[in-house]
Design brief:
The complex is a heterodimer of chains A (484) and B (466).
Chain A: H1 4-34, H2 38-77, H3 84-92, H4 100-122, H5 125-144, H6 161-189, H7 194-220, E1 224-225, E2 227-234, E3 242-248, E4 250-253, E5 256-259, E6 262-263, H8 268-287, H9 295-320, E7 324-325, E8 341-343, H10 348-369, H11 371-377, H12 381-413, H13 422-443, H14 449-466
Antiparallel strand pairs in A: 1-6, 2-3, 2-8, 4-5, 7-8
Helix pairs in contact in A: 1-2, 1-5, 2-3, 2-4, 4-5, 4-6, 5-6, 6-12, 6-14, 7-8, 7-10, 8-9, 9-10, 12-13, 13-14
Chain B: H1 21-29, H2 31-51, H3 58-64, H4 69-77, H5 87-116, E1 130-135, H6 138-147, E2 151-157, E3 160-167, H7 174-195, E4 197-204, E5 208-215, E6 221-241, E7 244-257, E8 263-273, E9 278-280, E10 283-292, E11 298-305, E12 311-317, E13 321-325, E14 328-336, E15 345-352, E16 355-362, H8 368-372, E17 377-385, E18 388-396, H9 400-419, E19 423-430, E20 433-440, H10 444-458
Antiparallel strand pairs in B: 1-20, 2-3, 3-19, 4-18, 5-6, 6-7, 7-8, 9-10, 10-18, 11-12, 11-17, 13-14, 14-15, 15-16, 19-20
Helix pairs in contact in B: 2-5, 5-7, 6-10, 7-9
The chains are: A alpha+beta (484), B alpha+beta (466).
Chain lengths: 484, 466
């Protein structure tokens, strides 16, 4: 049997192969839109996407087996005697989506699988370009996660339900993402006015910026993030060696220990200014929504985007260089957590959100600038609409089953089917939003821009369910172990 | 839903009676109410995850908003400290339930009508998107459709033959079943609200309890009786390494509670862990948390009865007296980290009929005490352990089967609604000419391919899609 160490090393190579293939596929799908010999380039892109998915699948399997071997080694090292059925169970008990790093990689994989199925049936290479781009963003963001080690699962996650419940939810999120990408292209193709797109895009971006910054951004122009601390953990595979493990810093407030949030120097003013200017841009666009496009609105969004770029740049710099923080006076750090405290790990959720806002704003600016050219490249809008609908009617039941499976697990582990825990509640919110989408479409017979707009807006809810709940705004709840 | 033009549900004749109930009924049937309910639930649930993120009880919120009377009043009046059980949130769910009931009652006869009494004549069907004409053989069409699993009916009329074939008509019930299932889940929720309870109990190693603590969201705590006695023989915190938990386990035993409050017969015995609870008499005991005891460490002692060979483990507190057999007691009187170079040792005092004697038990010498002391019982000291109290979550929820039943119907209904389709084919043969029409209520693309195959077989060109 191949050792876990070798599997992890091979996994790293497979992961890079995956990223490379997806990048090639992305370039191919984009190229096929404008090229003369469309078919040939599209074929190359498809081959690359299939290669990427193959490498990705191999990567996930290698990671799964490695995790299984680590689970077994951890038990043997602590004196357990395992029967062969125990061994089998621990081998499969740790699927590759139990922390943020793995979850992002897994969701990217599900997205690309869904895309290949869509491509077989509908073609639509432009959706493929977006799918590959989103998968690349997910995996790129995973690369920034500092906690990439596989650790044995905590007792709460040691259950076969994790194999069913979590995977279903992540697959449904991937389907909704693809559906939203198609819906967005539909809106552009269907001739939604640039002013209306701009008002929505800038407005939602500003809102999300304010939400991710919280009250400290609004009142003090300070952008706060959770720093992490590094400690050494004895390796279970190579006794005598140590692994570095990064964890969030906690402070003691009253009797509880909560995640510490401190200001990231040099980020707040830029993000606050960006949020304000984007708000202004949204208002200008909204007031002039009768026009096709508007220069003032576009300039405001561009200015906001420039400020956002600087803010994001500083943010990435602080995380990449591991800027050390000093503990603010009056803060009592939880016992056992020792410095240096650095921006890194737990900051990923904030970074992810800001990067997402940056990406969508860039997407909007590109669309606004080359509107006519892009519109002409896009395929028949009815097919785009069809893709969105198909993704939802598969994703929605899957989400429902996933939620119910979570309830059954909760009933078995905690004694209640439903407890209004933030993650549970947000999953149900997502389900309700898509139920709304289906009712407007099937029962009311809405089609076109209105339903597409709902599908795009619903994606914001999916993102919040996947990542926002872990920002620390809604309370940790019982799912906080999921992504650390 | 390209085929929405072919009515989803049959249109019943409008009632001409005007009664006072009519507008109210229409209101609860309306799709606008459905969307308003969904939007209301959406906003309320979003708010619910933000207004009280740490699940603080009302008492804590009162002190947090001492200086903001308006905010505090809002929290109190709208029960924002426990939004998901607030009166207005319940009203919202009730409105959704009424909406679902009204829609289901309204729909059922229409679906029934459509399934039992379908329109069988091509010339009476309106809004068909798939129509074709040509010289073709009705018998061949009929055979082919039958092979594909369609129920085919033919009737002669005015010198021609009408054909009606359909498949998967019960697919029409899918959406109805989904709505029904949601009602069952909501009903389960009501039953749960009325009958379920959830509380906690903290039991030290070797202690027992016959009650548990229920905390209500307003901050008050209430003691409830269990109806039996639960004893925690041992709690083990296993770690992969310090700070990395491997498992939390409690050895529990359940005893009958006698009228005087003492423990009677042993009713159940189980080691529980985080994902494996103990169920007894409709009540489930979950491993939820633990606490390090405040009364010092305990000695892990194995007591072996030499006459029978039976042994049991005791977590012995310093100074605690254990009655091992009738009139025979042992008391832990002293502990030494290193007794005369022999490592950790516990001193026990044996008392029987007023006679007392002391002896030491060494952790490094298992079996030594049993061999060297002439006594019915032998002792083995397994070392000093930190004392723990196990934190149990104690819950009863009779609504769970109802909720599961609802979820089962939800899956079944969704599967029927989205994965199956009611397909219909109409045809009329008159003077060697065959006119055809076809419709499916879901997945029109794959149905179009199926119809194309059928047409190709009998040699009729399919009109292009509109």
């Amino acid at each position: 049997m191949i050792s876990a160490d070798e599997l992890l090393t091979a996994g790293t190579a497979l992961r890079f192969a995956t990223i490379g293939s997806y990048a090639g596929a992305f370039a191919g799908y984009v190229g096929s839109l404008g090229a003369v010999k469309k078919i040939r380039i599209a074929t190359v892109a498809t081959v690359l996407a299939v290669m990427g998915v193959t490498a990705h699948t191999a990567y996930l399997i290698s990671r799964w087996i490695a995790a299984g071997e680590i689970e077994i080694a951890a038990r043997i090292n602590t004196g357990d005697v395992l029967s062969s059925s125990d061994r089998f169970w621990y081998m499969v008990s740790h699927p590759p989506y139990t922390n943020l790093f793995d979850a992002l990689n897994f969701t990217g994989w599900a997205l690309m699988i869904a895309w290949l199925i869509v491509q077989r049936r509908w073609g639509l290479h432009v959706v493929g370009a977006l799918a590959a781009a989103i998968a690349l963003i997910a995996m790129g963001e995973a690369s920034l996660v500092s906690e990439q080690n596989i650790e044995p699962l905590v007792p709460a996650l040691q259950s076969y339900w994790i194999l069913i419940h979590v995977a279903m939810l992540f697959v449904s999120y991937a389907l909704f993402t693809l559906g939203a990408a198609a819906a967005l292209l539909f809106l552009v193709r269907a001739g939604t006015k640039t002013t209306v797109l701009g008002a929505a895009q800038a407005g939602i971006s500003a809102l999300l910026l304010f939400v991710s910054g919280g009250s400290s951004l609004i009142t003090r122009a300070a952008y706060e993030m959770a720093p992490g601390w590094t400690h050494l953990v004895p390796s279970r595979l190579r006794p005598g060696k140590f692994l570095t493990s990064v964890q969030a810093v906690h402070q003691i407030v009253g009797e509880k220990s909560v995640k510490l949030l401190v200001e990231v120097p040099g980020v707040g003013p830029f993000l606050l200014a960006a949020a304000l200017i984007l708000t202004a841009g949204a208002i200008v666009y909204f007031l002039r929504r009768q026009r096709e496009s508007d220069v003032t609105g576009l300039r405001l969004v561009m200015a906001g985007f420039a400020l956002l770029t600087i803010g994001l740049g500083v943010l990435v710099y602080r995380i990449a260089t591991g800027t050390e923080i000093s503990v603010p006076p009056g803060v009592q750090i939880a016992p056992g957590e020792t410095g240096p405290f650095q921006f890194g790990f737990a900051s990923n959720y904030s970074l992810g959100l800001v990067a997402l806002i940056w990406g969508t704003t860039l997407g909007f600016l590109v669309t606004a600038r080359w509107r006519t050219a892009i519109e002409n490249l896009l395929p028949d809008k009815r097919r785009l609409e069809d893709v969105t609908y198909r993704m939802v009617i598969v994703g929605w039941p899957l989400l429902g089953v996933g939620i119910v499976m979570g309830g059954v697990w909760a009933n078995e582990a905690w004694g209640r089917f439903w407890g209004w825990d933030p993650k549970e509640t947000w999953a149900l919110i997502t389900w309700i939003v898509y139920a709304g989408y289906l009712h407007t479409r099937i029962t009311l017979g809405w089609t076109g821009k209105r339903t597409a707009a709902i599908a795009v807006a619903a994606f914001a809810v999916v993102v919040f369910t996947f990542m926002g709940v872990n920002l620390g705004l809604t309370g940790d709840g019982l799912h906080s172990y999921g992504a650390g | 839903m390209a085929e929405a033009a072919v009515s989803e549900v049959a249109v019943l004749p409008e009632s001409t009676e005007r009664t006072w109930i009519e507008p109210i009924w229409r209101f609860f049937c309306s799709l606008k109410l459905t969307l308003a309910n969904l939007l209301g639930l959406f906003l309320a649930m979003v708010a619910g995850t933000f207004v009280n993120p740490s699940n603080a009880p009302l008492t804590e919120i009162q002190s947090a908003f001492r200086d903001k009377p308006l905010v505090l009043a809002a929290y109190k009046y709208f029960e924002l400290y426990d939004l998901f059980h607030a009166w207005w949130f319940t009203l919202l769910l009730l409105s959704l339930a009424l909406n679902l009931i009204a829609c289901s009652i309204e729909r059922l006869p229409r679906i029934w009508y459509l399934v039992r009494d379908p329109e069988k004549r091509l010339d009476r069907v309106k809004g068909l998107r798939m129509r074709m004409n040509g010289a073709g053989d009705l018998a061949a069409l009929s055979t082919d459709l039958k092979e594909r699993g369609y129920a085919v009916q033919t009737a002669e009329r005015d010198g021609g033959i009408d054909l009606f074939a359909e498949r998967g008509r019960y697919s029409r019930f899918g959406v109805w079943v989904v709505h029904l299932s949601l009602l069952i889940v909501l009903g389960g929720g009501i039953v749960g609200r009325l009958t379920a309870f959830e509380g906690t109990a903290l039991i030290g190693q070797g202690d027992d309890t016959d009650s548990f603590l229920v905390r209500s969201p307003d901050g008050t705590e209430m003691k409830r009786k269990l109806g039996f006695i639960v004893r925690c023989d041992d709690f083990r915190l296993k770690e992969f390494e310090p700070g990395r938990p491997k498992s939390y386990e409690s050895d529990l035993r359940i005893f009958e509670r006698l009228p005087d409050g003492s423990a009677g017969r042993e009713l159940a015995k189980q080691t529980i862990a985080v994902n494996t609870p103990l169920r007894h008499a409709g009540i489930t005991l979950y491993q939820a948390s633990y606490q390090q005891g405040e009364d010092g460490s305990r000695a892990a002692m194995t007591i072996t009865d030499k006459t029978t060979g039976h042994s049991r483990q005791v977590m012995w507190r310093g100074g605690e007296t254990v009655e091992v057999a009738d009139g025979l007691t042992y008391k832990a009187t002293d502990y030494q980290d290193d007794f005369a170079g022999q490592g950790p040792a516990v001193q026990l005092e044996r008392s029987e009929d007023g006679h007392a004697s002391t002896f030491w038990v060494f952790s490094k010498a298992p079996g030594f005490d049993a061999r060297n002391r002439g006594d019915r019982f032998g002792f083995d000291f397994g070392g000093l352990r930190p004392s723990y109290a196990t934190g149990l979550q104690i819950a009863r929820d009779p609504s769970t089967p109802i909720v599961y039943l609802g979820c089962f119907f939800l899956f079944a209904g969704t599967l029927i609604a989205f994965a199956t389709s009611h397909k219909r084919v109409w045809a009329r043969a008159e003077g060697g000419q065959l006119s055809m029409g076809a419709a499916a209520h879901r997945n029109p693309d794959s149905f179009r391919r199926e119809v194309e195959e059928v047409c190709a077989k009998i040699g009729i060109p399919l009109a292009p899609a509109q």
